[in-house]
Design brief:
This is DNA ligase. This protein has 328 residues and is an alpha+beta fold. Helices cover 39% and strands 19% of the residues. The structure holds nicotinamide-adenine-dinucleotide.
């Protein structure tokens, strides 16, 4: 392929991806599957790598996610909320493992594997033990203040037993039963149903009237700590335990793995078992456990070098209960 052909293809991919992003993040109403989106993004990344002179700061490959909405107050994230690099198969995971070990110059690394909850990334800020602010990820630097909506999620503690300021991060989601009930109601009222639970959760949390979010039975899993000056824990797994001790809801399925082989077993287990969950997952997140190692590896502009998201492939996308119910 020559440069002119590459440019034409890159422009077309950028136009498509910009449109998909707008539909997904702003309208909460995607027109293509995540798999299709990810394929186009990979194609764009490959072309941009092969033709670096065609790279541009405005490319959708260079952004974390959505623009903040206009209506909510803006929140600046003290620690950026980034995206994750993707893996689509065992080879990508083994490459990641190699890069991590080379970067750290070590022979063995422990990883934490977590379910990748298909919801909306949010941050919760506590000051003097009180929940004072909740925000969306937005573009990673600036999010929307959705505190009033998040306060309606019953599993979010409004008080915790910790005086120091702490910001915890997680994924707000809509359980499948709530999603089915909501779409049934929408259809009864002649309204357009939501495409999937992720978009329903995002749409609910971005309503200006918190009474609407309160009716939607949303839930949350917390999986990270953002800003926390007083933090002393040495590993991500210790942090997950600590979050649970503080009263946050963490996902019980996470595992600490001593090798990439163990990680791959965990991934394969969930490829088969994901349909047994009552919430959607779109992959597995793998994180280097030791925080010192995370710090040594650092970040690219878009994502940490110490974590990767394994995305389930299209053929692994099982028919879910609501696919059946919506089609009858
Ligand atoms: P991502 O889906 O690759 O993963 C990063 C996100 O995973 C984090 O920000 C967090 O929100 C989430 N996450 C869930 N569980 C987690 C855990 N245990 N630990 C850490 N993070 C966890 O990246 P993204 O930037 O959020 O979204 C991009 C993806 O969205 C695309 O790859 C595509 O699948 C989808 N998308 C689809 C369309 C469409 O039109 N269908 C459009 C835009 C984006």
């Amino acid at each position: 392929m020559d440069q002119a052909q590459a440019k034409k293809q890159i422009d077309a991919l950028r136009d498509d991806l910009d449109r998909y992003n707008y539909e997904y993040y702003v309208l909460d109403n995607p027109s293509v599957s995540d798999y299709e989106y990810d394929q186009k993004m990979q194609e764009l990344l490959k072309l941009e790598e092969a033709f670096p002179e065609l790279q541009s700061k405005e490319s959708p490959s260079q952004r974390v996610g959505g623009k903040p909405l206009e209506a909510f107050r803006k929140v600046e994230h003290q620690v950026p909320m980034l995206s994750l690099a993707n893996a689509f198969g065992e080879e990508d995971l083994r490459d990641f493992d190699r890069r991590v070990k080379e970067g750290l110059k070590v022979e063995q690394v422990s990883y934490v594997c977590e379910l990748k909850i298909d919801g909306l990334a949010v941050s919760l800020r506590y000051e003097d033990g009180l929940f004072v602010q909740g925000a969306t990820r937005g573009d990673g630097t600036t999010g929307e203040d959705i505190t009033n909506n998040l306060r309606t999620i019953r599993s979010i503690p409004l008080r915790i037993d910790l005086k120091e300021t702490i910001e915890v991060r997680g994924e707000a989601y809509m359980p499948q039963q709530s999603f089915l009930a909501l779409n049934e109601e929408k259809e009864r009222n002649g309204e357009e149903p939501f495409a999937n639970p992720r978009n329903a959760a995002a749409g609910s949390l971005r309503q200006l009237d918190p009474k609407i979010a309160a009716k939607r039975n949303l839930d949350i899993f917390l999986y990270a700590i953002g800003q926390w000056e007083a933090g002393t824990l040495a590993s991500h797994s210790d942090r997950l335990d600590y979050l649970r001790e503080l009263g946050f809801k963490t996902n019980p399925e996470w595992r600490r793995c001593q090798s990439m082989d163990e990680v791959i077993d965990y991934v394969n287990f969930w490829v088969d078992k994901r349909s047994s969950l009552n919430y959607d997952i779109d992959g597995i997140v793998i994180k280097v456990d030791i925080l010192d190692y995370q710090q040594q590896l650092g970040f690219t502009a878009k994502s940490p070098r110490w974590a990767i998201a394994y995305k389930f492939r299209a053929e692994e996308v099982v028919t879910r209960l609501y696919d059946i119910e919506l089609s009858v």
